[in-house]
Amino acid sequence: MRGPLIRGNGWKWLLCAPALTVLLLAASGPLLIVLVYSFLSPGNMGGVVWEFSTEGWFRVFFRRDIFEPDLVTLNHAHLTVFWRSIWLSFQTTLICALLGFPTAWFIATRPPNTRTVWLFLITIPFWTNLLIRTFAIQEVIRNNGTINTVLLRLGVIDSPIQMMFTDFAVLLGMAYVFLPLMVLPLYAAMDKMDFRLVEAGYDLYASRLMVLWHVILPQVKPGFIAGSILVFIPAIGAYVTPRVLGGGRTMMLGNLIALQFGQGRNWPLGAALAMLMLIVVVGALIVYLRALGRMEGERRG
Amino acid sequence: MDATDKGEIHIAGVNKVFGQGASAFHALTGIDLTIATGEFFTLLGPSGCGKTTLLRVIAGFEQPTSGSLRINGAEMAGLGPNRRPVNTVFQSYALFPHMTVAQNIGFGLKMLGKSRSEIEATTSDMLRLVRMEALAERRPSEISGGQQQRVALARALAPRPRVLLLDEPLSALDLKLRKEMQSELKRLQTETGITFVFVTHDQEEALTMSDRIAVMSAGRILQLGAPTDIYNAPVNRFVADFIGETNFLVLPVAQTGGAVARLTLPGGNCAEARLPEGMTPVTGTTVTAVIRPEQAAIVAPETGDLTARVESAVFFGTDTHLHLTLADGQPFVLRRQNRPDQQPPEPGAMLGLSLASGALRVLED
Ligand SMILES: Nc1ncnc2c1ncn2[C@@H]1O[C@H](COP(=O)(O)OP(=O)(O)O)[C@@H](O)[C@H]1O
Ligand SMILES: [Mg+2]
């Protein structure tokens, strides 16, 4: 009995060889190139010169005076962008979680045959190009856009509210774009949830809030974890949304990196920023999962 | 306090209709029921007869379409399950998978806002009561089905409800474990003095455990009474058939008088049969009479009330079921206790049957 099984396992790993090859070439390859580039010198017209240098990494955090290269100050512009990226992505994740939970709950409590319809509706925005959706949001919130026009006509406000090119605009755009990525894993978790446990909670004198906190949330936690990872990671590297809705003033990491590879003509700096973003994301993930593990440990202990 | 206020649970004219219009389904029809404090009360009926629905109405998970429900004198309409002094042991146990056994048991007390020390004390009492002390820190997924069952019981008992509702709690257990849990449940009920409302489709379970039984069918209560009443005096064909085994005999009426009638048995002898209240069948018509398989004894041929031919014998361990044919061709099952010195009769043999006095009953329908 065991013989064929072991032999079977011997070649079965080959089934994932195509995927592994693609992953290795498509993910590790470019990553390696970026890592190497970050330690080279910038070329005059972009590109890199094959000359070892730590200047790219240095410039991520510090800046040199143009006239006196030895005068070194912290690069506040970069640090601001870093902080804004993390903070906006965090807020986006939070907003998506707060809006996504009731949405997913609504879908999961529909009769089974209508759930597909609701899920389908949730995924409809995916059919439209991201750029078009982002411009649609711009159309709604710009100074002579829908909201401001209506409010002006109604006489609620005298002059348009400046919403474009603010953190708010970026947040709104990102929450809108990433919401389905939170709803779908949350729904999947709720779909697997045993609703009889909710009844058991009520039966044991829990109020609605207590049932939510002690019974439902622990059950859908895997959905929250998957959803927040799916939202946070693309949010921190978002390019289109902050570009269109945030403009040059509320730049995020993705825009800063693109800038270095474009107008900035400093590929090593761009590469170093990209590596740093990777480190931030992996770091955030580790902190997040550790915190969850600790919570779990406390619950058990 | 008027008479209807007596008892723990008082249900009056409860109806439950699922759906509306053409697709409306009457799950409960005209349920009237008073369950006494400290009683072990059983709802018995085939699958789909509305037992769970009635239990859910009592627990507060379903609102009755009409009728009233009072628990300990208080009207329950509009109160959610978390505000009724009632706990449920779910058929699926519904233990919280992310909590330990001890946390599951303490959950109700925690939600009631009891102090930490009180929760701990009660939890360990409960663990001891269901003999689960050693597994307090395990997760539900790490214990067996029978153990989960006991945790579910302890969790429902911990807040000391006035009433414990149990929805087929033993149906998922194997026979031996089920027998064990039956006596365990009885012990817990006696020790705690809590009113138990127990749901089962297993008539034997109902007969052995209950103080009183309500036999249900198609959303109605057909008969309400002590196990012996229901077994010995089933009101109609459904109850007679559902509870235990029964021989149905179609017999002509020879004579009536008072509460009994004389029926003509196949072969010509007459026997007295008890009549249901208010029924006086006309002489010469036929009625259906019932008799339990163990209430007839084998005697020498031609000396008893009936003569029967043996068709087959089925061995059941404690007893043997003899499938017989009476003189007019009606089938008759006889249950005879086994003894090592007795051989079952051969198929084709002729036997005499003597009916126990009072064993024969006429059915209303
Ligand atoms: N929520 C519901 N909607 C519609 N019909 C229901 C619902 N709950 C139960 N029923 C119906 O009511 C009848 C009684 O169900 P139930 O009380 O679960 O029976 P039992 O527990 O005796 O097996 C069944 O025919 C069932 O299909
Ligand atoms: Mg049921």
Question: How many beta strands in the DSSP annotation of chain A?
Answer: 4
Structural class of chain B: alpha+beta
CA-based shape of chain B: globular
Radius of gyration of chain B: 25 Å
Query: Segments of chain B where pLDDT lies below 50 for 5+ residues?
Result: 1-5
Kindly name the structural category of chain A: mainly alpha
Give the count of structural domains of chain A: 2
- Our measurement of the CA-to-CA distance between the termini of chain A, rounded to an integer number of angstroms, reads 43 Å
Range of helix content of chain A? over 70%
Please give the CATH architecture of the largest domain in chain A: Orthogonal Bundle
In CATH, what is the class of the largest domain in chain A? Mainly Alpha
Supply the CATH superfamily name of the largest domain in chain B.
P-loop containing nucleotide triphosphate hydrolases
What is the CATH-assigned architecture of the largest domain in chain B? Answer: 3-Layer(aba) Sandwich
Contiguous runs where pLDDT drops below 50 for at least 5 residues of chain A: 1-5
Name of the level-1 CATH class of the largest domain in chain B: Alpha Beta
Q: Can you give the mean pLDDT of chain B?
A: 90
CATH level-four homologous superfamily name of the largest domain in chain A: MetI-like
Strand content of chain A: under 5%
What does this structure look like?
The complex is a heterodimer of chains A (301) and B (365). Chain A is mainly alpha-helical and 301 residues long. Chain A has 2 domains: 1-27, no CATH class; 76-300, MetI-like fold (Orthogonal Bundle). Chain A is built from 13 helices and 4 strands. Chain A has a two-stranded antiparallel ribbon. In chain A, a hairpin with a 5-residue loop joins strand 1 and strand 2. The longest helix of chain A has 34 residues, at 267-300. The two termini of chain A are 43 Å apart. The model of chain A is unreliable at 1-5 (pLDDT under 50). Chain B has 365 residues and is an alpha+beta fold. Chain B folds into 2 domains: 9-239, P-loop containing nucleotide triphosphate hydrolases (Rossmann fold, 3-Layer(aba) Sandwich); 245-362, Beta Barrel (OB fold (Dihydrolipoamide Acetyltransferase, E2P)), CATH 2.40.50. Chain B contains 8 helices and 20 strands. Chain B has helices at 51-59, 101-111, 116-129, 145-157, 175-192, 203-209, 227-232, 237-242, and strands at 9-18, 25-35, 40-44, 66-71, 74-75, 86-89, 163-167, 195-200, 212-217, 220-225, 247-257, 260-264, 270-274, 286-291, 296-299, 306-315, 319-326, 331-337, 350-355, 361-362. In chain B, the strands form 4 sheets. A 6-stranded mixed sheet of chain B has the order 6-7-8-3-9-10, sandwiched between helices. Chain B has a 5-stranded antiparallel sheet with strand order 13-12-11-14-20, with no helix packed on it. In chain B, strand 17 (319-326) and strand 18 form a beta hairpin. The A-B interface holds A 194, 196-197, 199-207, 210, 214-215, 218-219, 299-300 and B 59-61, 80-83, 86-88, 90, 92, 94-98, 100, 107-108, 111-112, 155-156, 159. Magnesium ion binds at residues 51-52, 167-168 of chain B. Adenosine-5'-diphosphate binds next to strand 2 and helix 1 of chain B.
